[in-house]
Amino acid sequence: MAIFDPGLDLRLRPMRYPVFYAMYKAALKNTWVVEEVDFSKDIEDLRSKLTPAERHLVGRLLAFFATGDNIVQENLVLNIFRIINVPEAKLYLGRQIFEESLHIDFYTTLLDNYILDMKEREGMFDAVLTIPSIKKKADFSFKWMNFLNGVTELKTDASRKKALLNLIAFAACNEGLFFFGAFAYVYFLRSKGLLNGLATGTNWVFRDESLHIAFAYEIVNVIRREYPDLFDKELKKNVAEMMKEAVACEFAFAEDILSGGIAGMPLTDMQKYLEYIADQRLRLLDMEPIYKSRNPFHFMELQDIQELTNFFERNVSAYQIGVSGEVLFEEEF
User: Fold this and answer.
1) What is the pLDDT averaged over residues 280-296?
2) In sequence order, which residues have a C-beta less than 8 Å from that of residue 220 and are 6 or more positions away?
3) What is the CATH number of the domain that holds 29?
4) Per-residue confidence band for 302, with pLDDT thresholds at 50, 70 and 90
5) Quick check: 165 and 216 in contact, CB under 8 A?
């Protein structure tokens, strides 16, 4: 059987794709809970240390976070879990669905701590309808979520290509670009000594998201081996156009989030950063980069390496599961 074959394969032995089982086992070692995040100093920062422009930045971040992972989770359930016919891959997908729930819980708790006014807090969850820069990103995601139009069995190359584009859209653009753009704002604030609770939780989300992307790209590699004809000029053109649209969406969000002017984070640098990420995602798909931009944000390399390297050094009292090893950053941003 192949990864896109219709039907329902329930046999975990013999295992056809042990790499997915290994990813599932690795994800289990990355367990954390929201209650481990201390927001107490963040509240003080919000009250007395942030500038009005920084408060606007945080508000827009919260509005994006309020529903961003909900959309990813919906696509996993409605599309990815149903079309990937590999039991060991579904083990990982089940874990990923749990992690998206954990992220939703983290961001909801974040809003509960940061936004004390109930009406304002409720408005954050309507941002996909009321804030144009966030609606633009949501509309992009909904377009690709609905791209399969309810297809549950992939019997033709046309349907398989649709499934492949859905997978790429959420791995490379949604999780791989929209969230990595958001992480840059968080780490920028942390580089100034602000909102360390948010940054701590973001480190753990960052680790989860990196594994999600790695899993999706491994799925793409399997599809490339089993259905090489899908990777034609038309697909590459579609992916390039998709990526350009995603960058445009995220840049519109950057224009909004940085509209008050943030010293140390010019809009031009954010544009280069987004282009850099987009090229990285394309290279990992064995596709030509579009922008050839460099990463202008050195604080990204400093901030998350510091915490994420320590992630695997922590003991069971800090995490539910102790892990040993190292984190490698080879232009993964």
Assistant:
1) 95
2) 164, 167, 168, 171, 285
3) 1.10.620.20
4) low
5) no
pTM of the complete model: 0.88
Q: Which of 63, 68, 140, 60 is nearest to 104 (CA)?
A: 68
- 316 assigned to some structural domain: no
pLDDT digits (tens, 9 = 90+) for 152-164: 778 899 999 999 9
Q: What span, in angstroms and rounded, lies between the C-alpha atoms of 86 and 54? A: 45
* Total domains in the fold of the chain: 1
Does residue 333 lie within any of the structural domains?
A: no
Angle between helices 87-114 and 18-28 (to 10 degrees): 30
CA distance 310 to 333: 18
Query: One of 21, 92, 107, 185 is an active-site residue; which one?
Result: 107
pLDDT at 319 over 50: no
Domain hosting 254: range is 21-311
24 is catalytic: no
Inside any domain, residue 331: no
How far apart, in whole angstroms, are the C-alpha atoms of residue 160 and residue 294?
34
